[in-house]
Design goal:
The complex is a heterodimer of chains A (about 600) and B (about 400).
Chain A (H helix, E strand, L loop, with lengths): L1 H21 L9 H13 L5 H9 L5 H9 L3 H15 L12 H12 L4 H9 L3 E2 L9 H4 L4 H13 L18 H8 L6 E3 L4 H18 L1 H15 L1 E3 L5 E3 L14 E3 L16 H6 L12 H10 L3 H16 L19 H13 L4 H9 L26 E2 L2 H12 L15 H10 L3 H10 L4 H16 L23 H4 L17 H9 L2 H7 L4 H6 L4 H13 L5 H7 L4 H13 L1 H4 E2 L1
Antiparallel strand pairs in A: 1-3, 2-3, 4-5, 6-7
Helix pairs in contact in A: 1-16, 2-4, 3-26, 5-6, 7-14, 9-10, 11-12, 11-20, 12-19, 12-20, 15-16, 19-21, 24-28, 26-28
Chain B lengths: L15 E3 L14 E6 L25 E3 L6 E3 L3 H4 L5 E8 L5 H10 L12 H9 L9 E4 L17 E3 L17 H21 L3 H18 L13 H4 L7 H14 L4 E5 L9 H25 L6 E6 L3 E2 L11 E2 L3 E7 L6 E3 L1 E2 L6 E3 L2 E2 H11 L7 E3 L5 E2 L15
Helix pairs in contact in B: 7-8
The chains are: A mainly alpha (about 600), B alpha/beta (about 400).
Chain lengths: ~600, ~400
């Protein structure tokens, strides 16, 4: 605890000074009630259950806030909540056709969170990922499988880990920033020849599968496709570690280079990292085959090291994102569009936070704990439209819960253990399950499987999914009792998550907090009536059922809004009949206060 | 290394208009509403509309049917559309660079290539944004039978499509829960009002106001006559007779006609499942029947109601299918040349645009890019295809892609 005092003090002092300087009013602190709801939402992504709330309020320990912070970061709920954060950033979703299951990628995120892997280690694992796509534990390969186009992948990498948008420079010199197309290509060159190969290697294919495939293709479509899919599960892999060279495009129009000219990899700023090329650039340039781009020199590792070592944009990006996540305010600039070297409106604070992040060696939990101990984090949230106020780094901003937070919060009402769907170990799906089976099978056995199993493509997936659940995973919960992190993405049925703006993960951070007619109609007239209000056996109804009028009102408010009702509110409600009690739940659930974080 | 300098000022968060001189003054729009019939998966052109003059051996099991237009034949799977071809302009030379479904569908619906860095709005969202007026009581972008989300792309969410998943179900949740009578519902609403007002006293913010407003709009919508438009069972018997009322796609077309009658500017009706890589002739016929009866029914519906003149019906797909049936008795993707249809009063009825080789494999005359089709539709609706709108990240976009050209010959 003692070690934390300095960084926390430093932040407190910097903000206090600034607020004084600007002549702004100091924000008041928050109550224990407000703290409890805020912390549960920010760390584990849902409101506290009624029991959790009452327990915290009743706790007499003067250190209870600090203890709660430490406790919540150790829970399954934390893994669940922050999985969603990473999944949106990395766009973890099913994208069909050649690449199917992203469950292994999700599981890599979850395992990294369980182990509290430092942020720089996570990023290095993603950039350096290679090998079998569906091997349990090797899910970081999803990073390359998610985006197989090298140039788009480069833009995503820069945006995700440096916070900068350089994608305009993919096709032309950036119109209003410094990035040139040539620089874009130079940076992209770090991952040249890193590829997703879904089918067996050419040698293996020729030796083991080619003949039989042709035979099956002529004989039976289903058998042929099952062989194709089965072989792919076993063999799909990320190959290549980067040649460090890339040719400018055929239509390159600027004077600083020529079409098809070979570029050597170069960083976007700072020093040019050393690369141990095997082939000289001039030699490669002479090669008439423009598809040849040089032998592998592990240039992606060079990029990974440059990205994560003493790279100020790397640090700024993560502190900007985490501050935003906790406070709802941009510390430095727009999350996906930082300018090089930008420090934001309070450079001293940015420097303090950057130093902290480096000192804790990119331990994100340690960083967040420090921030959560500050006065700023524990002050009242304000609307950004408050009159006469320009500086908002002194506390959280009032904003809507994410779709996942709203959904997961309904589980706080319906279940005694809202985390019952969340595992503390690897969850298998059909792909990772069949991968392990296929490792034990020779090519002949895989071919035989395709010929005799009487499956088709869809059945192949379903059968293996069922086996994964039967032999490897704990018993599945009711579909509607899953926390958002436990669903396969995208969810194919109508679901509250989609209605409330969950990201489709087609773009980075693509979720929405906007209201829609559908949300309003759903909240007023949809299934929540049955699931939350009328199910006598759900958690909240069992807790509230025997209470007298006054207690009922208070406990209902505590369960939904994390506070007791005011006298005025109690006066307005009066004596509640049974249907009045249900109506109260409906009102609290539909209120703005429920869905906005403060 | 270049010393990174700061960029020009801040970029606004709302899409901005870049006022560029238009090369053509805005003309009176030819078309008030568009009903966009979308066939994802790849509609086989040699089994539907590119039939006339095509070698028999490339038609597979399809045979040629004469149509109500000279020089146009349809396949035997489209007997109802055969009688309507004089009302359509047939484009046989659509071409796209995309051979994979997600990218090709994206291109057809947004006019742009799929990128990981930005999400482009669907055409319907552009219509919703550009052509809506304050007196419109219904949203101007409705999608039926398909739930592709986030269709507004980088436009504000309010321009996204209103989705109707099941046309016989109307708008989901548009009535109070069956266990909640109206007076109880109203009691709840008034309590909700007070609690929201209390909250606003402490936290006045446009985002809570936006939520309160949308709730008011939703309540208004629940009570409004506009909801009636979504109830296909309320349609006149003489119109329902034109359709196969048991078929979902037909129901969707009927609903689209009703919405256009109420002034909705863009309705997309989807019928998927055309991706017949194998056994095409066991699965295609029933799909074709849905399309044939639905679209023909819709054209009749619009005529009956006097909507035909001002409405444009588009039949589109993201690419075509191979000119030869493959070893699995299917047809594979064929982006090089495929067919789309335009129909309605503004369209050159009974006309064929573009010519393919006799095996259907090559475009000989007048290829039509996906963006050119979209530009022509946009222009007919009165939208300015040269207008650039800035996305929140500062990049400029146009309704039918960058600097696309129009094809005037589709319209009279």
């Amino acid at each position: 605890m003692a070690k934390l005092k300095n960084p926390v003090q430093a932040i407190n002092q910097a903000i206090e000074l600034k607020v004084k300087e600007l002549g702004q009013k100091k924000r008041p602190g928050i109550t224990h009630h407000e703290f409890c709801r805020r912390l549960y939402l920010d760390v584990i992504g849902r409101i506290p259950t009624l029991d959790e709330m009452n327990h915290f309020i009743a706790d007499k320990n003067p250190n209870k806030r600090a203890l709660l912070i430490h406790k919540l970061f150790k829970t399954k709920g934390y893994v669940s909540h922050f999985h969603n954060y990473w999944a949106d950033l990395l766009r973890i979703t099913y994208i069909g056709d050649k690449l199917h299951s992203m469950v292994n990628y999700s599981e890599w995120v979850k395992e990294s969170l369980r182990k509290n892997k430092p942020y720089d280690v996570m990023v290095k694992e993603l950039i350096n990922a290679e090998g079998d796509l569906y091997k349990p534990g090797n899910g970081a390969t999803g990073f390359y499988a998610r985006e197989v186009m090298q140039l788009d992948h480069t833009a995503s990498t820069v945006k995700s880990f440096l916070g900068m948008s350089i994608e305009c420079a993919q096709c032309h010199d950036h119109p209003f920033e410094d990035w040139t197309q040539k620089e874009f290509y130079e940076f992209a060159a770090y991952t040249t020849n890193v590829k997703l190969r879904v089918d067996p290697s050419p040698e293996e294919e020729k030796k083991e599968y080619k003949e039989k495939r042709k035979e099956l293709k002529d004989r039976d479509f289903d058998e042929w496709i099952v062989l194709r899919e089965a072989a792919r599960v076993k063999h799909a892999e990320i190959v290549g570690n980067g040649s460090g060279y890339l040719r400018l495009p055929h239509d390159y129009k600027y004077k600083d280079g020529n079409p098809h000219e070979v570029m050597a990899a170069n960083s976007l700023f700072g020093d040019t990292p050393e690369m141990n090329y095997i082939m000289k650039k001039e030699v490669l340039q002479k090669n008439k085959n423009k598809k040849i781009l040089g032998p592998a020199v592990n240039s992606k590792q060079v990029m990974a090291n440059w990205m994560t070592s003493k790279n100020k944009m790397f640090t700024y990006n993560i502190i900007n994102r985490l501050w935003y996540k906790m406070m709802g305010v941009e510390l430095i600039g727009p999350l996906d569009n930082l300018e090089y070297g930008q420090k934001g409106e309070h450079p001293e604070l940015t420097d303090i936070l950057a130093d902290i992040m480096v000192n804790v060696k990119f331990d994100m939990v340690a960083f967040m704990k420090i921030v959560m101990h500050t006065k700023a984090y524990q002050s009242k949230a304000l609307s950004k439209q408050v009159e006469g106020k320009n500086y908002f780094l002194d506390g959280p901003i009032f904003r809507r819960m994410s779709a996942e937070e709203i959904w997961d919060s309904t589980l706080s009402l319906v279940l005694e253990d809202p985390e019952k769907s969340v595992l503390d170990h690897f969850r298998y799906d059909g792909f990772t399950y069949f991968y392990e089976e296929a490792l034990k099978m020779s090519p002949e056995e895989i071919i035989k499987y395709a010929e005799t199993s009487k499956l088709n493509r869809g059945k192949f997936y379903n059968v293996n999914d069922k086996k994964a659940d039967k032999y490897k995973n704990p018993k599945a919960v009711n579909f509607y009792h899953n926390r958002a992190s436990e669903y396969r993405h995208p969810i194919t049925k109508p679901h509250m998550l989609k209605t409330f703006g969950q990201s489709t993960r087609e773009v980075i951070n693509g979720s929405s907090l906007e209201p829609s007619m559908t949300q309003a109609l759903y909240s007023m007239n949809g299934e929540l009536e049955d699931v939350i209000l009328r199910d006598k056996n759900n958690y909240i109804n069992k807790k509230l059922s025997q209470l007298d009028n006054n207690s009922y009102i208070d406990q209902a408010y505590l369960a939904l809004l994390s506070r007791k009702a005011t006298e005025r509110e109690k006066g307005r409600l009066g004596n509640l009949s049974l249907s009045d009690k249900q109506d109260l739940i409906w009102v609290l659930l539909n209120s703005n206060e429920f869905k906005f974080k403060k | 290394m270049i010393n990174r300098k700061s960029a020009l000022g801040a970029i606004g968060t709302a899409p901005l208009l870049l006022n560029l001189p238009a090369s053509e003054p805005a003309k009176k729009p030819k078309v008030k509403s568009v009903i966009y019939l979308f066939m994802p998966g790849g509609l086989s052109q040699l089994d539907s509309f590119n039939i006339y003059g095509i070698n028999k051996e490339n038609l597979g099991k399809s045979t040629a049917l004469n149509s109500s237009a000279d020089g146009i034949q349809v396949s035997n799977y489209f007997p109802n559309m055969a009688k309507k071809m004089h009302q359509t302009c047939l484009i046989n030379t659509m071409t796209t660079g995309q051979g994979a479904h997600p990218q090709a569908i994206y291109k057809m619906l947004t006019s742009y290539g799929m990128r990981s860095s930005i999400k482009h709005p669907e055409f319907g969202a552009w219509v919703n944004k550009e052509l809506s007026t304050p007196k419109d009581s219904l949203p101007n972008f409705v999608q039926i039978n398909q739930g592709r989300e986030a269709t507004a792309g980088f436009f504000p969410g309010k321009y996204a499509a209103l989705t109707v998943l099941d046309p016989s179900d109307g708008i989901k949740y548009s009535q109070t829960h069956k266990a909640v009578p109206v007076n109880r519902f109203n009691k709840r609403l008034s309590l909700l009002d007070s609690i929201n007002q209390d909250f606003d006293e402490k936290m006045a913010d446009t985002s809570t106001k936006a939520y309160s407003d949308i709730y008011s709009n939703a309540v208004k919508f629940m009570k409004s006559e506009d909801l009636e438009a979504f109830k296909i069972e309320k349609e006149e018997a003489s119109i329902k007779k034109l359709y196969d009322m048991k078929d979902k796609f037909n129901q969707g077309c009927l609903l689209a006609g009703r919405l256009v009658e109420k002034g909705v500017r863009f309705v997309k009706v989807t019928l998927g499942g055309w991706d017949h890589h194998d056994k095409i002739y066991s699965e295609f016929p029933s799909k074709a029947k849905s399309l044939d009866t639905g679209m023909a029914g819709l054209l009749g519906h619009l005529k009956e109601k006097g909507l035909f003149e001002d409405t444009l019906v588009v039949l589109a797909t993201e690419f075509g299918r191979g000119i030869k049936v493959n070893v699995n008795h299917g047809r594979d993707h064929f982006p090089k040349s495929f067919s789309c249809l335009l129909a309605g009063g503004a369209v050159h009825g009974g006309k064929v645009y573009g010519k393919t080789s006799a095996d259907g494999g090559e475009v000989l005359e007048n290829p039509v890019e996906v963006t050119e089709l979209n530009a022509s539709i946009a222009h007919a609706m009165g939208m300015n295809i040269e207008q650039k709108i800035l996305a929140p990240n500062g990049r400029p976009f146009q309704v039918a892609g960058k600097d696309t050209k129009l094809i005037k010959e589709f319209f009279v």
